[in-house]
Amino acid sequence: MTPRFLWNQFSFALGNPIPAFAAFWHIALIILLAAAIWRLRRSENKKTERRILLFATLTAVAAPVAYCAFLETLSYLARSWYFLALVALLGITLDCLASELSNSMSIRAGRLALAAIALIVLPINAWPKILERQTDINVVAQKITEQAKPSDLIVLAPWQYAISFNRYYHGATPSITLPAIVDLRVHRYDLFREKMLSEHPIDDVMEKIQQTLASGSRVWIVGGIKLPPEGRPPKSWPPAPDGNAGWDNVAYSDAWLEQMSVFVREHSAHGQTVSLPWIGPVNPFEDVQLMVIDGWQ
């Protein structure tokens, strides 16, 4: 992860769904820090006020640096929600600075007016996100329950979909993830790491797909397929951390999805996207497609 990527995710956390809000909070932080530093340079500050200003100023500067260093060390692919703790801390810090700097009645009245406007404007602008469903995996599970047979096979690709899918699906059709993860109660990235170290990480998945299609049954792919661009073979990475992918789990997951997609395109007789009922906007992270394939060739 680069500092630019972390900055973009932090700004997205502040400005979703309207990016201009992120700029507002950045400017507010700069103005309050500048005012606090100017106030600290004045010798007539009260001792208590000086301590609060100094603590809040140092926290506002040190917390983002320390948190980004933590994310760099963690080496996870940071998303906007990773910054919620930092945003909460900075919010308290800004409030402390604003409180100590609001000496005159006019500044206090302006601060109160700004808070009142925010209470009205922010929920209105966030309303589309408030109404947005976090997943449609329950709809996918219901569709499979209605149409799949016990002799069919469900393939969940990528494997992370299985955590929420298993919560809603209670049918008789067996399922397998891509790659095959044996414990799906939580996101077992330690087991995914073992697949990254394997020489043949998805051979068992391909074999089950082949057996199901050859027997005349269907394969339901939760998540859809991802074909490489025309003329390019599917990506293939050596066992981690060799090769350009290193320990990038997304790179390995995408490569395996391409390999499976090419496999089913070349060896299945028919394939189609299953239409799902409209349920409104869904969070892109779990707006899941459903495909069904049959026939072996």
Keywords:
single chain, 297 residues, alpha/beta, 2 domains, 5-stranded mixed β-sheet, 5 strands, 56% helix
Give a quick summary of the entry.
With 297 residues, the protein is α/β, with parallel strands linked by helices.
Unreliable spans: none
The total count of strands amounts to: 5
Distance from first to last alpha carbon: 43 Å
Question: What spatial order of strands do you see in the largest sheet?
Answer: 2-1-3-5-4
Helix/strand-derived category reads alpha/beta
Shape: elongated
Structural summary, described in words:
It contains 10 helices and 5 strands. The model has no long low-confidence stretch (mean pLDDT 89). It has helices at residues 3-15, 20-40, 47-74, 84-101, 105-131, 137-147, 161-168, 189-196, 203-214, 249-267, and strands spanning 153-156, 175-177, 219-222, 268-273, 290-296. It folds into 2 domains: 3-131, no CATH class; 137-296, no CATH class. Helix 7 links the parallel strand 1 and strand 2 (175-177). A 5-stranded mixed β-sheet has the order 2-1-3-5-4, with helices on one face. 56% of the residues lie in helices and 8% in strands. It has 297 residues and is an alpha/beta fold.
